[in-house]
Amino acid sequence: MKHWKKIALIFVLALFALQIPFVYKRVKRGQLAQKIARMNAERISSENSEFAEYKGVVHVHSSIGGHSTGRFEEVVPAALKNDLDFVVMTEHASALFNTSAMTLSGVNEGVLYVAGHEFDTENQDRFLIIPGIENAEDMTRESTAETLSIVHSQARLAVVAYPNEFKSWDADFDGIEVVNLNTSTKQISPLWFLPDALWSFSAYPELTLIEHLKRPDKELAKFDAIAAKRRISLHGGNDSHSNIGFHIFGDDSGNSFLKIKPDSYETSFRIFRTHVLLPPSEVLSSDNLIAALVRGNSFIGFDPLSDSDGFSFSASNGDTTAIMGEEIALSPGKTALKIFAPQKALFKIFRSGSQISEVNDTTSFDLPVSEKGVYRVEVYLPALGGPFADFPWIISNPIFIK
Asked: Which terminus of the chain is more exposed, N or C, with fewer CB under 10 A?
């Protein structure tokens, strides 16, 4: 055999050997998907009838605001296929027209769309403003303090986007985006992810991606530090753009001979959802959805790991009860947290940023509280094994015990 043929054969064999771990991971991922399906079939339904739960996604872009090639014709079917109740659009501001006024808004096919904005202030602090603001482009020339003053005077929600780049931490914002899918995926090593995705992404896109994500340690630590000083809410940003991939013989209208788009709306809408709680007497609307997000009556659920519908976190002092995002007075000897999840799980309870308790292999429990503080919960599914033992299934908003 000629020398160059030997080299070529060795190269092919080495390339084949390198694929073995990823083929094995695909097989294991298929087994994991079956296990999750069995867990979902055996999940325990919540008996909480005091609140209606709605799930949706926040921080979604289309071609209207640039930075995206996504079309409404992609957004609407993706929301329907994922059985979403709401989608919060956050178009980038434009000097030419009000992008918020041009994007999806109102009820479409039974899904509520809320039109918001994303933009930077003069200080280069980036916010999600919900609902959008007519002169959003002008706001990019205002200071962070002035921007927030205008936004709040118009009863809008201001959420810090990309907290790792934010500067004005003493500003009067309403909440922090502790999970951002765009930021999280940029931290993934392409050398390990790309061959893994080659084998698994088409069959198990959500599980493949989540397995490479990490708990947002820095973002949660920053949230805990601010929440210890004042009442704010935490949020998850899907940051859906639908702009990664390629097509052959296509045009700007979305027609193409072959299209490959790994970050489709359908996929990014599944990775995690924002679950919002409303009184049963309230019909889901833009106003009461925004009000619930401001209060923090919500939690983040990585639902591909298991359906998180029905999770609840409340506190009672014997006289009153508070849910996520609310405040309650400490009553010594009477105050307790009540926590429920629809699967047996590992619960981690935090007070003002420090973990104070851990309860495993149960679906519900009560935890007596004797100290004031900001309490929140993270829920894990160690039964899934591997990296999922260290990655949160559910991240709750806090309860402020004063």
From this structure: N
pLDDT at 260 over 90: no
| Tens-place pLDDT, residues 277-292 | 999 989 999 999 999 9
Tell me: pLDDT of 304 over 90.
Answer: yes
Q: Give dist(CA 283, CA 83) in Å, integer.
A: 17
Q: Distance between CA atoms of 265 and 84, rounded to whole angstroms?
A: 12
What pLDDT is stored for residue 19 in this prediction? Answer: 66
DSSP character string of 174-205: SEEEEEEHHHHHHTS-HHHHHHHHHHHTTT-H
174 beta partners: none
CA distances from 184 to 187, 192, 216, 354 (A): 5, 15, 8, 23
Q: Give the residue carrying structure tokens 């296990």.
A: 35
Distance CA 274, CA 236 (A): 7
Tokens 């999750």 sit on residue: 36
Answer yes or no: are the C-beta atoms of 100 and 136 closer than 8 Å: yes
| Separation between Cα atoms, residue 89 and residue 58, nearest integer Å | 7
Q: What is the DSSP string of 58-120?
A: EEE--GGGSS----HHHHHHHHHHTT-SEEEEEEEP-SSS-HHHHS--EEETTEEEEEEEEEE
Q: How many CB atoms sit inside 10 A of residue 297's CB?
A: 21
**Percent helix / strand / coil, the chain, rounded to 5:** 35, 30, 35
- Transcribe 247-267 into DSSP letters: EES--TTS--SEEE-TT-HHH
Structure tokens at 32: 């994991």
* Sequence-ordered list of residues with C-beta below 8 angstroms from that of 352, at least 6 positions apart, any chain: 224, 227, 228, 373, 374
Bridge partners, 298 (sequence order): 276
Contacts of 148 (CB under 8 A, 6+ apart): 158, 171, 172, 173
Burial (0-12, 13-18, 19+ Cβ within 10 Å), 141:
exposed
pTM > 0.70: yes or no = yes
- Residue 355's Cβ-count burial label (10 Å; 0-12, 13-18, 19+) is exposed
- 3-state SS assignment for residue 71: coil
State yes or no: pLDDT of 238 exceeds 60.
yes
